[in-house]
Structures are given as C-alpha cells and as structure tokens.
Amino acid sequence: MSYKFLINDLNSQKKIGTDKGLAKIGDGIVNLTYSIAKSIYLTESSSTVQRTGLKVNKTILSNALKNANMKHFAKNRADAHDLANTVEAIIAYVVLNDNMTLNEIIDFLKDKLSGDLKNRAQELKYASDAFTNLLNYIKKFLPDD
Amino acid sequence: MSYKFLINDLNSQKKIGTDKGLAKIGDGIVNLTYSIAKSIYLTESSSTVQRTGLKVNKTILSNALKNANMKHFAKNRADAHDLANTVEAIIAYVVLNDNMTLNEIIDFLKDKLSGDLKNRAQELKYASDAFTNLLNYIKKFLPDD
To answer: Per the CB 3.0–4.6 Å rule, which of A5, A80, A143, B118 could disulfide with A62?
Structure first.
C-alpha cells in the first residue's frame, strides 16, 4: 500500500523539517538503512560476514544538513540535535511519499561509503559525506515552498 | 541489490536465533515496521494524521516467540530479553534473505493490528498477536534444521 496519506498534511519545507513524529519514523529509517549499508560495506572488504546495527551519530546528520545547504528546513536557532532530527524527518518524508524505497536508500548509502568505517573519525567524515549526497539527491522530491 | 550474502553463514535455527549482529539489524526492522504500521492504524481510525516512532516492548516480542512455539530458536535458559532478540534476528533473516520486503512486513502487521493501541495493556496483547501471526507466516522461510 501507499503511505502518502501519512504525510499529506506536510506541504512546506519547514513543516516537514520540524515534524516530531516524522523525525521519529526517520530515526528508525536512518539507523536501519545505514546499519545495513555499513554491514554490506564492511562485509565486502572483509573475509568474514559483518553484521552491525547502530544509531547514526547526530553530528553526522547535522553536518550533512549543513553541507547540503538545507538548514532552512530546520527550526530557527536549531542545535545539532534539532538539525539531525530535520534530516531524519526529510528522509522519512521521501520514503512515505514513495520517492525512494528503503532498499534504494541502503544501496545509495552503500555506494557512497568509503574509508575505514571502523575508525571513528573516518566514519564521521565519510558517513557525513554519504548523507550529504543523499540529501542532495532527494532535494528534487521536496516542496519548493 | 540482494543482501543474501549477509546471512549465508547462518544455516541453522539456532545460529539465526542467537546471532547478535543480526538481532541488532532486526531491532531496527521491528521498531521501524511496527512504528509505521501503528501510524497507519491510528491514522485510519482518527480524523488527523498520526505519526509515531517507538521501540517495541521486549515483552511483546518474547510473548510472540512463545505463542508461535519457536523458543527453540533461542539459546537455552533464555530470558525475555534474549527471546526478544531472537524474534528480531529471525525477522532480519527473512528480510535479508529476500523472503519479505520491509513494506510487506509493514502491511502484514498493519492488517493484523486491532484494539485500542493507545491503551498500554491492549497494545501489549494486540501487538503480541500481530507478531505471533508474523512469526507463524515466516516459519516456511527458515531452515528446518
């Protein structure tokens, strides 16, 4: 079934980027898709299967929103936590709006990942880059306001 | 892409049901699919759109494993937390094995939900029933041992 009716009240950049329920759904989407993408990435560069599930660091997401020049989706005077919630809400929006499937997000992130993701500093950089790429890609699906 | 290579080392009921990394991925799958299914269910029985994201209670999942007669997938002397992890691992297995998509799980759970999910006791009962149904459905995709 289509899930569009879950977002048909959200018709502006600010409404999407500041919706708390949408951000909660997006939190699950971001953590799950990144976990699987990272598992694939680590497995492809290893001799054993690697399965990992994790929460994506808020700094990774807030950096991505800034790098994609999308801070105007967030509320005014937003802190890193607010900016991360905005990224989560935006990603949930495109999934519920049928613009991208969860598998497409997994594959997109996996293709954009690079570096040594077991190194914390490198993961911060390269995961931020992957999410920046994702945000730039999905801009076209969002309201112009 | 197919994610089957992420599970090709897991060839028995016990290996699937006790794998920690798989349970972590499944934790994300369970929380996300149930959150969207519950959002749909609440929205369909309301005059406003309801969006919610939540962690599924461990008791709901451990009850489902017992009700589906699948405790043998868990480790010996498993507590409720272990049993819940086993449910999460099993659900992750069928997703990574391409037996069910995330959207199919959302739709399945949504179709099985009933009662007043804003009432904690009722949610415990009806969500346990929905996950029991899901486990019974996916048995056919799991190794016979």
So the answer is: A80
CATH number of the domain within which A18 lies: 1.10.1520.20
Tell the residue number behind the tokens 């962690």, with chain if given.
B55
| B135 in any annotated domain | yes
Q: How far is A113 from chain B (nearest CA, A)?
A: 16
Whether B35 and chain A come into contact, CB under 8 Å, resolves to yes
Which structural domain, as residue segments, surrounds residue A79? 8-141
pLDDT digits (tens, 9 = 90+) for A86-118: 999 999 999 999 999 999 999 999 999 999 999
Judge whether A2 lies within some domain.
Answer: no
Residue A14 lies in a domain: yes
Cβ separation B51–A102 shorter than 8 A: no
Give pLDDT tens digits for B43-101.
Answer: 998 989 999 999 999 999 999 999 999 999 999 999 999 999 999 999 999 999 999 99
User: Which residue, among A5, A15, A25, would best test binding to B if mutated, counting the most B CBs under 10 Å from its CB?
Assistant: A25
Give me the torsion for CA of B90, B22, B98, A101, rounded to 10°: 120
Considering the entire predicted model, what is its pTM?
0.96
Ramachandran region of residue A77, left (φ > 0), alpha (ψ -120 to 50) or beta? left
**A3, part of any domain:** no
How close, in Å, is residue A110 to chain B by CA atoms? 11
